[in-house]
Amino acid sequence: MLSVNTNSGAMVALQYLNQTNAQLTGVQNAINSGLKVASAKDDGATFAIAQNMRGDVAAYSAVTDSLNRGTSSVDVALSAGQSISDLLIEMKSKALAASDASLDTASRQALNEDFTALRDQIATVVQNAVFNGFNLVDGSTTQITALASTDGTKKITVAAQNMSLGGSVVTVASNGTISTQAKAAAMITTVESSLDNVDSSLAQLSSGAKKFSIQSTFVQNLSSTLQTGIGNLVDADMATESAMLQSLQVKQQLGVQALSIANSAPSITLSLFH
Asked: Can you list the pairs that 229-233 forms with residues at least 24 positions away whose Cβ atoms lie under 8 Å?
């Protein structure tokens, strides 16, 4: 039926053209953003899942930062402990030399000066072994703790090792000397004991550093896996989107032509009156 009031063909053509334009807009947005789900409007359920996963990734970033700070603090303590171990080895050598009963007073005095300088250097090393406000070798803290989970309930703890002079690890007193043969002989045992203790403390710190390192690697791998999962959910397949774009552009052109033909239908009515 020909009618000048209602052009059902044009309305149908316009409806399909609007659908094509909407699809074309979605494809263009996907190509521009690289995302097939850029907002909740695109796919509410998928967007919500992706947002939850993004929250976990952000939390794992905080966990990684915490583990890195813990690792750095332990690394500083390890470096200090190794320096102290080296100093104790030198101190043992000085004490052994000074324990020689045949040594003259001037030589023993020179050895004692070297010994006390090494002893004081231990105190300096202990005092300066600070990272991020933590000193794990001066007795100011008993442990350092780092986050290990996104909800903050899981943590990794590494015990501190007090290597201050006159303590349970470094038993050499802060005023210890080798100024006499007897003191030098006694100091040999003290230094050897301290050296064993420091090496044991270093082993414990090293074990703690490994715990941080293992957890950090695990967290990084887990975060990467989540990021890949997010990509699988929301990333656009550019090959598919490109093919769809070409298809919709052709469909749009055909739709425009169909609408044009439908709009010209009423003019046919005029020809009936000529």
From this structure: 229/53, 230/50, 230/53, 230/54, 230/57, 233/37, 233/46, 233/49, 233/50, 233/53
255 and 212 co-located in one domain: no
Q: Count other Cβ atoms within 10 Å, centred on residue 208.
A: 26
Longest Cα separation, the chain: 141
pLDDT at 248 over 80: no
Residues 6+ apart with CB under 8 A from 235: 34, 35, 36
DSSP conformational letter for 34: S
Sheet strands (E) in the chain: 143-147, 155-159
Query: Taking 80 as the threshold, does the pLDDT of residue 113 lie above it?
Result: yes
Does the residue 179 lie in any domain? yes
Residue 246 burial (CB count, 10 A): 10
Across the chain, mean pLDDT equals 86
216 and 241 inside one domain: no
pLDDT in tens, 167-206: 999 999 999 999 999 999 999 999 999 999 999 999 999 9
Query: Does residue 141 sit in the same domain as residue 155?
Result: yes
